Amino acid sequence: MAEIIDGKALAAQVLARTAADVAEMVAGGAPAPGLAVILVGSDPASEVYVGRKIAQCRKAGITSIEHRLAVDTPQEQVLALIDALNADAGVHGILVQLPLPAHIDAALVLDRIEPGKDVDGFHPVNVGRLSTGTGGLVPCTPLGVMLLLDSVIDDYRGLNVVVIGKSNIVGKPVSMLLLEREATVTVTHIETRDLPDVARKADVIVAAAGAPHLVRGYWVKPGAVVIDVGITRVTDFDGKTRIVGDCATHELDHAKAVTPVPGGVGPMTIACLLSNTVLAAKRASVA
Ligand code: NAD
Description:
The chain has helices at residues 7-27, 44-60, 75-87, 106-112, 124-132, 140-150, 171-180, 195-200, 265-286; strands at residues 3-4, 34-40, 63-69, 93-96, 160-164, 184-188, 204-207, 225-228, 232-235, 241-244, 257-258. The chain is of the alpha/beta class and 287 residues long.
């Protein structure tokens, strides 16, 4: 049987470490790290994600500042809010919940965030820092993927890694992190030819396609490690909805280790958002 990598347990460890860091900072006289969360509109999934992030902040001792804006808020007003948060010394991290309504240019909004407060790691300065291996803030999901992999892999040098999906928020940044560790990384996507054959050569597969059960048992070589980033909500014949990952995990007994969905990458993403906020606060205090 493949080992099931427990993302919930690992996330709890990251959160406990983060809470201890916050307590130490505050005991040393520093203000509690502050995370500003901007939600434009009332997309139900976004509401759930924002609610979870704020609840975890509270548990870790991070001050969360919510900015809930109406769905028709003009772009200029969102940009002005970001300018104000950039200038606010009590705010160490700024998170804009995506997706934004269609009349707002998401790239413009994300580019406006001060890179040192960009705890999602999406600003071009942080993207550049990641690709040159020169620090910066790293996107939360890829950071979480690396911590999950670190729990079962000591040395990445020369390992063949196949990343499925080339998005800016998962596929590309996780590929950069793996390259930094000297893995041989193949980034694949919807147009990749013979993907099962490519995947079968992998020691590690990171599936981030958003395609339910794409990765079948015969795609995975015995002993490979499989990280399932995919989250797709499907409705069963009885009308009940459930979350499905990108991997047919029930066919992966021959793998060395796999992450479950839910309970794998998801909890790690929020934990890493909080650890990024603390990192941003620490850097601000020495700047
Ligand atoms: P995206 O839609 O931006 O990108 C998907 C990528 O997968 C694209 O590069 C596309 O070419 C590729 N792809 C799609 N179908 C494919 C197929 N059949 N074969 C090969 N490649 C295929 O998605 P994203 O934002 O990177 O998210 C990917 C998945 O990860 C989604 O299910 C998303 O919900 C999930 N996700 C989870 C977390 C988390 O915290 N667990 C965080 C972010 C994203």
